[in-house]
């Protein structure tokens, strides 16, 4: 499925007051919008993912999965600053004729959600049956549910939070220090910061997984090993994978956007902002998540009116939301079951 491109005809004002005069949004759609317009599934993707959700969320999205394009009109848009088609540091600055690189305006999660609003209007979407996202995707979904509380009928927020924590910001800052340590990053070039990005990804992976994950999957088979450890080669391998498909400048801006996430900003605080949400909300936390600890999802469920909370146990830590698709399918299926009177069943359980 090829990517689509939406070019917004008006200047796009960011929360900072800066303006993007040539906003472009790269996105994918799957399936067909039905006559009632009530079969829209909107996916908000995470930090380094892209709009091709059938590729990276297999097991949850696909022909034989819970979210099937034969039944749903599935939409996923690349976020602002992403290198996969939406306006980003790699876009051409109309004032200079050169890529923005580090002169690109700072964007935040709220700006991403506002861009989704524009794309939804362009596509003729007047109601979203389910908006789902994990991690940075969950942050977008929450913001959108506050900006347009009557647009999203059902909200599924996975391994995410209402505001980014000092712990998460510290992880991101450490990764940005790695980018700055690469002397090719600051001058700005198409391949700038590749070594720094490799190191940043290695750091990030430690927050996405757990001690147990590494202890089992990267353990040496022999006591004689003194160098070239499996864990070392694994970190290098994962760093190279990201370098080959992503961009250091996008990584810089996206990590900054995640740091800025706070639904309470300008709304009288986080709890007041969460009360605005009208969507029937399912919050899913991962017990082993180091980056977005389970208490952050419990907080969401407590302060979003009528929200249900499910705790998922996963060997994979934060990355469990991308890997544990069978468990997620069971949770979502249970959430949408009806009782004999047709009322929605509310969940409060641990799997």
From TrEMBL:
InterPro entries per the UniProt record, alphabetical: AB_hydrolase_1, AB_hydrolase_fold, HAT_MetX-like, Thiosulphate_STrfase_CS
Ligand binding (substrate): 201, 319
Alphabetized GO MF terms: homoserine O-acetyltransferase activity; thiosulfate-cyanide sulfurtransferase activity
Functional pathway: Amino-acid biosynthesis; L-methionine biosynthesis via de novo pathway; O-acetyl-L-homoserine from L-homoserine: step 1/1
Reaction catalysed by this enzyme: L-homoserine + acetyl-CoA = O-acetyl-L-homoserine + CoA
Subcellular location as annotated: Cytoplasm
Keyword Protease: no
Alphabetical UniProt keywords: Acyltransferase, Amino-acid biosynthesis, Cytoplasm, Methionine biosynthesis, Transferase
Enzyme Commission (EC) number: 2.3.1.31
Active site: 135 (nucleophile), 289, 318
Statement: the UniProt record of this protein carries the keyword Glycoprotein: no
Domain AB hydrolase-1: 40-322
GO BP terms, alphabetized: homoserine metabolic process; methionine biosynthetic process
Superkingdom, natural source: Bacteria
Subunit annotation: Homodimer.
Functional description taken from the UniProt entry: Transfers an acetyl group from acetyl-CoA to L-homoserine, forming acetyl-L-homoserine.
Family affiliation: Belongs to the AB hydrolase superfamily. MetX family.
NCBIfam families: homoserO_Ac_trn
Protein name (database record): Homoserine O-acetyltransferase
Species of the source: Mucilaginibacter auburnensis
């Amino acid at each position: 499925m090829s990517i689509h491109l939406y070019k917004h005809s008006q200047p796009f004002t960011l929360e900072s007051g800066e303006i993007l005069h040539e906003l472009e949004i790269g996105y994918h759609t799957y399936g067909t919008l039905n006559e009632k317009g009530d079969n829209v599934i909107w996916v908000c993707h995470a930090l380094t993912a892209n709009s091709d959700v059938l590729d990276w969320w297999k097991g949850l999205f696909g022909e034989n999965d819970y979210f099937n394009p034969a039944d749903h009109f599935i939409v996923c848009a690349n976020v602002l600053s992403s290198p996969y088609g939406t306006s980003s540091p790699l876009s051409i600055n109309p004032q200079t004729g050169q890529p923005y690189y580090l002169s690109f305006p700072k964007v935040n999660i709220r700006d991403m959600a506002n861009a989704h609003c524009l794309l939804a209007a362009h596509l003729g979407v007047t109601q979203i049956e389910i908006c789902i996202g994990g991690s940075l995707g969950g942050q977008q979904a929450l913001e959108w549910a506050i900006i347009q509380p009557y647009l999203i009928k059902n909200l599924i927020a996975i391994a995410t939070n209402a505001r980014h924590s000092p712990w998460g910001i510290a992880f991101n800052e450490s990764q940005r220090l790695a980018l700055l340590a690469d002397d090719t990053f600051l001058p700005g070039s198409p391949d700038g910061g590749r070594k720094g990005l490799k190191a940043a990804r290695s750091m990030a992976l430690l927050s996405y997984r757990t001690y147990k994950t590494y202890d089992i999957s990267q353990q040496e088979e022999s006591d004689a090993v003194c160098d070239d450890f499996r864990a070392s080669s694994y970190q290098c391998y994962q760093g190279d994978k990201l370098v080959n498909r992503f961009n250091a400048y996008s990584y810089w801006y996206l990590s900054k956007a995640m740091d800025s996430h706070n639904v309470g900003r300008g709304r009288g605080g986080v709890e007041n902002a969460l009360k605005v949400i009208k969507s029937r909300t399912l919050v899913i936390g991962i017990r082993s998540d180091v980056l977005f600890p389970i208490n952050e999802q419990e907080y969401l469920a407590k302060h979003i009116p009528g929200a249900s909370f499910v705790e998922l146990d996963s060997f994979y830590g934060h990355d469990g939301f991308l890997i544990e698709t069978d468990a997620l399918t069971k949770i979502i299926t249970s959430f949408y079951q009806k009782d004999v009177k047709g009322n929605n069943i509310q969940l409060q359980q641990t799997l």
